[in-house]
């Protein structure tokens, strides 16, 4: 399956529910009030966020003010304006100063453990040797789940018992990675502790251990955000952003929502690049974020 097909499949719900007749609505060379209203409704319903929608519509009006030519495809004009409202930056793949450390943070159930495993697969596809660190020691199931993934992917998982110090797990994972010349360490962390400040303190402690042991690491701190939680997810994300320097966002479960425009709102409100998107439950359903493919999949544009 091509990458575009993956995006298309993952965003089927949003496209079929909201964007299905966008081609009919938006095919003319003029832009009347009715079209604008219909378009606005679709974009807002997809959870893109009112601010972003207003900006996109303004830019469309500007573009149409100057009349579009016969050669221009209205849908591609809309697509390009949408793309300009998304920001991404490449997932760090360089392991020349190995090991590369990727720390995953986010609330419980956001898909962190699964994302850790799927991300391991991405790095393995690039030929990297990966170690997974089970630093969510709050939940026994999270440790077990990561071990199962490790078996399936044939990747080493460093784990201690439930309730042990996550920073110690991370320390061991780093020692292992150094001893075995591994390329990448992916750290799964807890999403819930007894109090929120405990959680943030724990994440900071993990980060300190990583920084102390490997210069320049962690190179990536990715916030894993459940794409089906809408505005709530964004509020949670802000708390993480305040506590720890996030380098990118992984939006999960975009396949499970009809409000798949959420990437725009996340980008706009958090001002953090989106690096990964979860488009399904299978191990190769986590994809490096591609704004053009994402918008093509929303609008049903075959490349
Ligand atoms: N459909 C779909 N399901 C996903 C995706 N990513 C994660 N999930 C599912 O979401 C559920 C929660 O994922 P976990 O990885 O356990 O979440 P977590 O954040 O690690 O949660 P804790 O371990 O409880 O902290 C699992 O059933 C995953 O299979 C996705 O992109 N699409």
Automatic annotation (TrEMBL):
Gene3D superfamilies, alphabetized: P-loop containing nucleotide triphosphate hydrolases, Signal recognition particle SRP54, nucleotide-binding domain
Membrane topology: Peripheral membrane protein
Subcellular location: Cell membrane; Cytoplasm
SUPFAM superfamilies registered for this protein in UniProt: Domain of the SRP/SRP receptor G-proteins (SSF47364), P-loop containing nucleoside triphosphate hydrolases (SSF52540)
Keyword Zinc part of the UniProt annotation: no
Substrates-to-products reaction catalysed: GTP + H2O = GDP + phosphate + H(+)
Entry keyword set: Cell membrane, Cytoplasm, GTP-binding, Hydrolase, Membrane, Nucleotide-binding, Receptor
Keyword Hydrolase part of the UniProt annotation: yes
GO cellular component, one term: cytoplasm
Location, primary (coarse class): membrane
Superkingdom, natural source: Bacteria
Physiological role: Involved in targeting and insertion of nascent membrane proteins into the cytoplasmic membrane. Acts as a receptor for the complex formed by the signal recognition particle (SRP) and the ribosome-nascent chain (RNC).
Name of the molecule in the record: Signal recognition particle receptor FtsY
Organism: Defluviitoga tunisiensis
Gene (UniProt): ftsY
């Amino acid at each position: 399956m091509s990458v575009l097909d993956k995006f298309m499949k993952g965003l089927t719900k949003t496209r079929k529910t909201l964007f299905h007749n966008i081609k009919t609505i938006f095919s003319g060379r003029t832009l009347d009030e009715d079209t604008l209203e219909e378009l606005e409704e679709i974009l807002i319903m997809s959870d893109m966020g009112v601010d972003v929608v207003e900006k996109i519509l303004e830019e469309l009006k500007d573009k149409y003010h100057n009349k579009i030519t016969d050669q221009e495809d209205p849908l591609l004009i809309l697509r390009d304006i949408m793309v300009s409202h998304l920001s991404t930056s490449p997932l760090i793949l360089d392991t020349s100063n190995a090991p590369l450390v990727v720390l995953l943070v986010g609330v419980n159930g956001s898909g962190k453990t699964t994302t850790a495993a799927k991300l391991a697969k991405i790095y393995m596809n690039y030929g990297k040797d990966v170690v997974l660190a089970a630093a969510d020691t709050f939940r026994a199931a999270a440790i077990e789940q990561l071990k199962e993934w490790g078996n399936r992917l044939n990747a080493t998982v460093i784990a201690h018992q439930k309730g042990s110090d996550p920073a110690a797990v991370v320390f061991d994972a780093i020692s292992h990675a150094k001893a075995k010349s591994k390329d990448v360490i992916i750290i799964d962390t807890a999403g819930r502790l007894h109090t929120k400040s405990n959680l943030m303190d724990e994440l900071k402690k993990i980060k300190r251990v990583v920084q102390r042991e490997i210069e320049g690491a962690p190179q990536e701190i990715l916030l894993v955000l459940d794409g089906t939680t809408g505005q709530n997810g964004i509020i949670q994300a802000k708390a993480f952003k305040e506590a720890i320097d996030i380098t990118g966002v992984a939006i999960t479960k975009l396949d499970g929502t009809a409000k798949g425009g959420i990437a725009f709102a996340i980008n706009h409100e958090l001002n953090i690049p989106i690096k990964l998107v979860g488009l399904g439950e299978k191990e190769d359903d986590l994809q490096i974020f591609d704004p053009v493919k994402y918008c093509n999949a929303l609008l049903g544009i075959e490349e």
